Amino acid sequence: xxxxxxxxxxxxxxxxxxxxxxxxxxxxxxxxxxxxxxxxxxxxxxxxxxxxxxxxxxxxxxxxxxxxxxxxxxxxxxxxxxxxxxxxxxxxxxxxxxxxxxxxxxxxxxxxxxxxxxxxxxxxxxxxxxxxxxxxxxxxxxxxxxxxxxxxxxxxxxxxxxxxxxxxxxxxxxxxxxxxxxxxxxxxxxxxxxxxxxxxxxxxxxxxxxxxxxxxxxxxxxxxxxxxxxxxxxxxxxxxxxxxxxxxxxxxxxxxxxxxxxxxxxxxxxxxxxxxxxxxxxxxxxxxxxxxxxxxxxxxxxxxxxxxxxxxxxxxxxx
Length: 319
Fold this sequence. Notes:
- The protein is mostly helical.
- The protein has one domain (5-64, 91-311).
- The chain is built from 14 helices and no strands.
């Protein structure tokens, strides 16, 4: 029987991201997007420092230093698609390159989305951002990676479900729509990057370093383009703490661990459920009403998730 641990970790990440939508929305009332990104990404990286230490101690107790080092060397030499049990040093080239690329894509996607929201509606932005569930399988075709037919059915269901859930007005392409579509493309690239690096280096260090890089880049833009007010940051403490500790440190780390055993196309479908949980949280905590159209959209997207488990749970292989 196939192990669904990876899919469950990704589903939990989607729940956290969906709930974080409320705090992100509130946070924009106090600070700019780059300031918010700087605070949450740096906080997320800092929160993972003790986690890295605890995982290293646990690994040493279970395996011993010599066995750990040998296993890591074997994984690096064969290019196996199973997680390396050894902790990668901070000088490890694979770790550094992977962290840099994942951090760059995380910063770029988040920035494009935040700027695009200035020029487009939240409903359209939610739909366009989640289009990464189509972009990922398309990119995989160019990378000569197999995508199962049942997975494509799940993708189609999820796209239609997102349309019913998010689009409530005429759909016309404007500047903001183009920027958010760029965000969806970058998110798709990040999913493929994590798919590659999560099984080739230490996942906790990969998560912490990518958050640090995204935070540094956000900080540079914050100083260049925004007026930083300490009082506003302190007033935004609750949204920053929630998104930094849960949305960034917890959810993105769950994504990296989940992708170790989950196909990229299935990952995209599961992560697209963020929009479903955002709507549910809005109804539960903000008193927003769900229309029959939105309920059907949620049902279709959950059906896409279940279909993906049938046809695409195993990691796709390179032809």
